[in-house]
Each structure stands twice: as C-alpha cells, then as structure tokens.
Design goal:
- The protein is mainly beta.
- The protein contains one helix and eight strands; from the N terminus they run αββββββββ.
- The strands form two sheets. Strands 1, 2, 3 and 6 form a four-stranded antiparallel β-sheet that branches. Strands 5-4-7-8 form a four-stranded antiparallel β-sheet, with no helix packed on it.
- β2 and β3 form a beta hairpin.
- The longest helix is centred in the N-terminal third of the chain and has 9 residues.
- The termini are far apart.
- 20% of the residues are buried.
C-alpha cells in the first residue's frame, strides 16, 4: 500500500509542465510603492518610476495615477504613455519615470499607480507588480501667518 501525501498542490511534475507553457521571452513592466514619490513640499507633481524586469522590451505602455483605489471609485489624476522600456538583458535596470501634475488638498491621500490598466500587454510575465500605492500624509501649511509688527491702517 502506498502512503498518502498530505502536501497541498499539484504533483511536482505537473508544476514543471506548467512552467514550460510560459513564454521564453516576455516583457514585465511594474513598480512598487517605493517607486512613487512627490516633489517637495508636495509641489503638485507625482512621479512614478516604471521598471521592465522582463526579458523583452515593452512598447506603448499606459500608466495611470489615481487619488484612491481605482477599483473602489478612486479619482483619475492623469494618464501617461511610455513609448519604450528596454529589457534588462545586460542586468542593468531599465526604468522610465512619468510625472502627473496634481495639487493635493490638505487631507491625507492614497495614491495608486496602475501600469497597463487595460491589460493590453500580451504574454506579460506577471501582473502582480502592475499596481502600487502609497499614502500622501496630511499636509500642513508651510508658512504660518504672523501678526504684523506695525499696525496697518
């Protein structure tokens, strides 16, 4: 009698077969929360650094910025089109930065960046790195008004 296996998931040979169906060369644009930044002191510009970690160049990739989660009704801040990000075949990182003009209110904001929002890139290695977000904290005025030294009449 053969012992039963209690480990979940497919048999290891099934995983090997599945991995052979992936494309050998494919683009993979993406980003992480650390790739989103703001011009100090929140001067109206959101900058997102987009990477290609795939083995093939990515062409004509759309990037969108949202105030709030786009799947929960977030507001579109802007969209940009990146014409090309080469593949890092020499192991040197390939990135392109895009900017979105936006002036936040004083409240905190959840900023989302979405790469390839219409899912137009064929054979992408993974889409898990296509959305990232970060929090823009509540902004206090940079200059506080003081009482004038000389009365104004």
């Amino acid at each position: 009698m053969r012992p039963s296996h209690s480990s979940p998931g497919p048999h290891p040979s099934a995983r090997r077969k599945r991995s052979r169906t992936r494309p050998q060369y494919a683009p993979d644009p993406g980003l992480s929360a650390s790739d989103i930044r703001f011009e100090e002191p929140y001067g109206g510009l959101i900058i997102a650094r987009i990477h290609n970690v795939g083995s093939q160049a990515v062409r004509h990739v759309e990037v969108e910025a949202y105030d709030g989660d786009p799947d929960a009704g977030g507001t579109l801040i802007g969209a940009a089109l990146i014409p090309n990000i080469e593949a890092p075949n020499d192991l040197e990182p390939r990135t392109v930065s895009v900017g979105f003009n936006w002036i936040p209110t004083k409240d905190a904001h959840e900023i989302y960046i979405v790469v390839d929002p219409k899912d137009e890139i064929k054979d992408e290695l993974t889409t898990f790195n296509n959305v990232a977000h970060t929090t823009l904290p509540k902004v206090e005025p940079a200059v506080k008004l003081q009482k004038p030294l000389v009365p104004v009449s």
